[in-house]
Amino acid sequence: MAETLFSLDRRNVRECQKLFRGERSQEYYLGDYWLDEGPSVEVKAERKSVGPISIIRMTTSPKSYFRRTRQHIREDATDLAVLWFVKRGSLGLSNQCGNKVAHPGDFAITRSMSPFLIECNVDEEGVNQTLHVTVPTHILRAHITRDFDTGLFLHCERPEMAIAENLFTDVFEDDGNLTPDSARALVDCALQIIGNAVKADSDGIATRQTIADRRLEEVLRFIEVHLSDPQLSTTMVARGCGISPRYLSFLLRLKGTSFSELVWEQRLEKARSWLTATDARDISISEIAYGVGFKSPAHFSRMFKRVFNKNPREYRGLADNDAEHDETGIALP
């Protein structure tokens, strides 16, 4: 359940600089925070923590500001990225690269290790509302490779951003029914979706796919669906996708692989994951072999050992030992 990070009104507005980081000054990073003078003051910031990531919904009236200077950075080197989803009003960002404004539907990233000034501008009804997500920069870089050191703006309503915003909102509004692992999985999924959208924007990828792209997707889907069938063949895939075997080979060359390489690689990788996640009491090695499309456990064992240097039984035993050591706190090699 979300908790109140800070709340301001006419009685305590002059303490806003002291209060904006929460009761123990644990949120955000050092900076200057202030509001415009106005007849009324209604500011509320609510937070939901998911591991080291915080989802914060902030509603502000009147206009408010946040400034991070080089002096603040020298005093507090906390490296956080903030993902901004503007709900009402607008968000102005000024830094050494110039001035930009994000409106509802736009997406922005700021980073605490570069100086900036943020202006939260109110709408016609005198309200600004944002959903923003604070993420340690080292975590975000696993999802976004594009440079965002001095900020990043996307002036577009990409469907990925709306989906990511909905995921963050669902986690924020959850009243405790989600397990911590489920909440973290949803947040990680949202970050990955944002990373995909940023990459697509950087590469200038059009939403329209070529015919070859669509055909390749159909081929990969057919193979995935029928991977457990030991009779899976180029003839079967070509017929199922309505193309010729020759065109099928051409499509797979576009992916840099051949039919046999793709199928065996997927079968062995899925078997490896299955062995890691289960033990003999759950499912036998023979069942795994047949489940991923091998005609016999002996053939599966030979192929598995050729790739992973251990037979399936040895590999499962090693995975079980690692899990036991991890649970008991013994350091893994």
From TrEMBL:
Keywords: DNA-binding, Transcription, Transcription regulation
Signal peptide segment: none
SMART domains in alphabetical order: HTH_ARAC
Domain HTH araC/xylS-type: 217-318
Matches recorded under InterPro entries: Homeodomain-like_sf, HTH_AraC, HTH_AraC-typ_CS, Tscrpt_reg_AraC-type_HTH
Domain of life (superkingdom): Bacteria
Official protein name in the record: AraC family transcriptional regulator
